[in-house]
Protein 1
Amino acid sequence: MHKFTLLASLLLIMVLGSSCGSNKSMIYLQGADELYKNGADLENNYTLNIQPDDQLAIYISSQDEELMKPFINLKMIGLQTGMTNSASSSYTYFVVSKDGYIDFPIFGRVKAAGLTVNKLSEQLQNRMISEGLIKDAKVTTKIMSFKVTVLGDVKNPGTQSYTGERLTLLEAIGRAGDLNSSAIRKKVLVIREEDGKRQTFKVDLTQPESVFNSPAYYMHQNDIIYVESNKSVKVKGSSGYLYLGLTGTLLGLGTSIASLIIALTK
């Protein structure tokens, strides 16, 4: 009787241990409450650089309507106060060429790739003022093609469009409906193409330092996030159910049980 009580206790410990281990792998940012309880300085390094194929909206304002006329075209929106905005739906944007330029009224080809939107705005504004074109020019530039694609084991995979500049990895995953329970949180892959190079980053969502210290924490234009599924998940599109991980776990558990029974019945 004592042997069977011991066997039952050991089996219960094994099951509970397996369950606890599984639940721990589901928790995001483990230990973040202690790690950052005294606060931590933030690096505001999320400013985007303009890239080839980006679409830019350039806003120009001035108190003098006459000075604005040479710059009025369908690629500019947000002109000076008093001008109608009714046709804004027909406006297009400046598209950055593959060699990094935009075609700007009066100025012709203007280098844009590699600059921040603030830097491009500053250069255009200073040039308008220094060349006597618009003495009180105010220029603002926005990237209108900021998009991120989230694939794999998330609730709503697909491409997200975003009009701001600050988008984090966690926010992008949240916009995709969060990870499914079957997703592997320790190996989230971010693929980035920038400056003619392709680079990959692996992020462990369970570890706060892996998340917040990653170069991929702040998203860039056209980033791709891929979330891998656990092997125990059914493969979509297949005719059967592949529970490989579950089968391995049950076999391992069965082997352990058999070994315990043999040991206790000797």
Note: The chain has seven helices and ten strands.
Protein 2
Amino acid sequence: MNLYSKLKTHRTREITFPMVRIYTLKDLSFMLVHIPKVLNSEQLALVRTKLDHAGAAWVDGRVTAGFQGAPVKNNQQVEELSPIAHELGDLVLALIERNPRFISACLPKAVYPPMFNRYSEGMNFGNHVDGSIRIVPGSGRRMRTDISVTLFLTDPSDYDGGELQIEDSFGMHSVKLDAGDMIVYPASSLHRVTPITRGTRVACFFWVPSMIRDEGQRTLLFEMDNAIQILNQTGADEAARSTLVGNYHNLVRMWAEA
């Protein structure tokens, strides 16, 4: 079932709340969620080929940086309104709207149009917190950034450095995933991309305003949803499962900004 419907005037997507989700991985703490194999090998090869031949569509990454980010940002990104950004962004949107783990972790109200960046040797992005509000290009629509998302497009063996380092109250988490894998983390966190010392790191990134604005409430719902899926897979008592599912949806009803 398609969970999104396109808006007529721009490329953000509105969300219909999903009724069924299936999981194969256990939950990760602190809403730092790894989503594997968002892109398969054929899709990954297509995206990389088009980005490698994007030419003049690659611009200085500081064009979209805010006051805090510009002094510490040193990378390139595909111009947001370019045809290649639209084409590949729509491909990513079509994949994540069918990804049950993404939906459960984010409970998205909309999705900011995916962007693409590139770090070559010597490039990095220093400590920063993502801006709280983004303006969708070409629409003027303001979008709150509750959740940050990075989709890795380069095999980790092809570059050194380039780790996404995310800090929270429990310390620093260093992330360098397989090509095609995605990490979801709070946009409110202090994070950085370490300097590239060999090769090139290419990624897709975007933000999500969630129907559940509060991170603690999102975490509770994500863990509850994972527990429901495990109970479903193990054939636990049907009446108890139905009660738990009802409580899940009632909490969403209580907290959601639909």
Note: Helices lie at 41-52, 83-96, 100-106, 215-233, 238-255.
Protein 3
Amino acid sequence: MIGTKEIKIPSPSGRGGEARARKGEASQNGEGLNLGTPRRSLRVTAVPMGIITGILAVAAGALFEVRPPEAYGVCMACHARDLVDWSLNLIAGTHLEVAPASLIFPLLTPIGVLIGALVAARNSGEFRWQTPESPLKAFLYGVLVMNFALVAGGCSIRLLLRAAAGEALGVIGFAGMIVGIIFGTCWLRWRATR
């Protein structure tokens, strides 16, 4: 075994901090001492990703003719409904209604978002399994959210796209969603103080 004498390495930033390494361990593990610049990581925030998603949603609707209906480029509720209905039509021979954009092949947005979220969580070290306090209540809340999104004409992303296109239902649905968020936040704050 090579000696394990501790040596001090001046910090590359020059602020007086010191990095420590054990002499011999780095070379024994096949790694050199990293005295160069620190590794850069890409920081992604919600605002740029929202802008990129909006542009891609409009591009999907315009370039690939993902319509009718309009503003159908990204919608977690409608695409999930069409994916389930299309799959049941194919497997069980039912005749459930799907949007014309999903007649030949379903839009796989929900699966892509789930896989993308899983990969991002694993890469950032944020992935962990969580069990809800009441699985039945969580399931029922999910069913209600999905059904009310379909009644409103789409998920929050599609409502925003429809509102941006000047569609009356999109404007009303998006305004209703904002009011619901405000009431929900007030209720959660009230419940937390009880």
Note: Residues 168-193 form the longest helix (26 residues).
Protein 4
Amino acid sequence: MTNATTQSRTAHQRQRRRLLGLAVTLLSAGALRPLAAQPSRPTDARAGPDPELRKILIAAVAEADSFSDRFDAEVWLTDMSHRLAKQVPGATERLAILKAVHKHATHVNVPAELVLAVIDVESNFDRFAISAASALGLMQVMPFWIKELGYKDKNALFGIETNVLLGCQILRFYLEMERGNLVQGLARYNGSVGRRWYSDRVLDRVRTKWFRQ
């Protein structure tokens, strides 16, 4: 074995020892500890409070009183009120629902007729509806939002304005997540990702009942 080979091997061994020493130092300081697993974001509206969506909802609640109905709302309200009369006989409650839908759907740039179809399928316009999954109110908002948004109790989600405001924001959030794909966005809203039954029911309700004249 030549001197050059011996010197090269010795230098290599010294380098390895230095690297091992550095690794031990970093490990003892915590620098090489494995990263803690990051919690995955909820995949749909039933899976849990999405942090990004939470910020949107807090902002929406704070500015809710600044919204105003558009000039053409009167024509729309009259038309939709006739269609909703069988499900919500009381004129006061019926108009409160329609005004809230028109206002908040317009604000998030979602067709109000689509929101009406969602409510029709989700709760049959029963503002006190509670699903088997504990979703609440007209748009079946999940109860974990009560704590996340600082509401006192679930009664807040039975309020027409609050429920429709949150429901419209949540719906828009998942439609944008799916880049406007109604089938996939609606499935995320309902917690039925990968299946079409819910989306098909909502879209069929738009075509047959809540279409714009």
Note: The chain has two domains: 1-39, 52-208.
